[in-house]
Design a protein that fits this description.
By secondary structure, the protein is α/β, with parallel strands linked by helices. The protein has seven helices and seven strands; from the N terminus they run βαβαβααβαβαββα. The chain has a seven-stranded mixed sheet with strand order 3-2-1-4-5-6-7, covered by helices on one side. The chain binds glycinamide ribonucleotide. The site of glycinamide ribonucleotide has 17 residues, from helix 1, strand 5, helix 6 and helix 7.
Length: about 190
């Protein structure tokens, strides 16, 4: 059994799609939701699905020893970042080599790095006059958005698209592909 912890900071629409996709799966279980923001929507989603949550504030996040034990007690052996905005501490990356993946709402290596998250990404893509954007699912290392790329999918940008419209297009791709790619990655290993 692979037990996944989903790390998420926000609304959690990706987390919810992943939870729904693996409901009842005998090989893959969502064991824990880790969140850094009290009141984040993803906490309600976890509660609705009866999934344990772990809220980690900034100071504690940078000294992972204190919560690694909680990941272990939930038998977590794979980590999925779904809208999580902090850089993973090196000691977590060491404990989960090639077992942490992230989704980024653009076509890396462009429009990634520190400060590039959510609507900021879409604003930057539109400001540069790009004709397409998309999603990137990649392994996580100790640098923002630099781990090996696992999967990308593209969407077209039309004249007049706003950051909100682009965000919607990207969310459609994320919701369709992220659960599938997680399943293929885990079952293929
Ligand atoms: C997603 O679009 C995800 O790609 C992005 O945050 C959004 C979270 O939405 N992640 C980043 O920008 C990471 N750099 P959600 O909370 O509805 O899943």
């Amino acid at each position: 059994m692979v037990n996944i912890a989903i790390f998420a900071s926000g609304a959690g629409s990706n987390a919810e799609k992943i939870i729904q996709y693996f409901k009842g799966n005998k090989a893959i279980n969502i064991g824990l939701i880790v969140c850094n923001k009290p009141g984040a929507g993803v906490l309600d989603i976890a509660a609705n699905h009866g999934i344990d949550t772990l809220l980690i504030e900034k100071l504690r996040f940078s000294s992972p020893e204190s919560y690694l034990a909680e990941l272990k007690s939930h038998h977590i052996n794979f980590i999925v970042l779904a809208g999580f905005l902090w850089k993973m501490p090196a000691s977590i990356v060491e404990v989960y080599p090639q077992r942490i993946i992230n989704i980024h709402p653009a076509l890396l290596p462009n429009y990634g790095g520190k400060g590039m998250y959510g609507m900021r990404v879409h604003q930057a893509v539109l400001a540069a006059g790009e004709k397409e954007s998309g999603i990137t699912i990649h392994y996580v290392n100790e640098h923002y958005d630099e781990g090996n790329i696992i999967f990308q999918a593209k969407c077209t940008i039309e004249a007049g698209d706003t950051p909100e419209i682009l965000a919607q297009k990207v969310h459609v791709l994320e919701h369709k592909y992220f659960p599938e790619v997680i399943g293929q990655l885990i079952m293929g290993n």
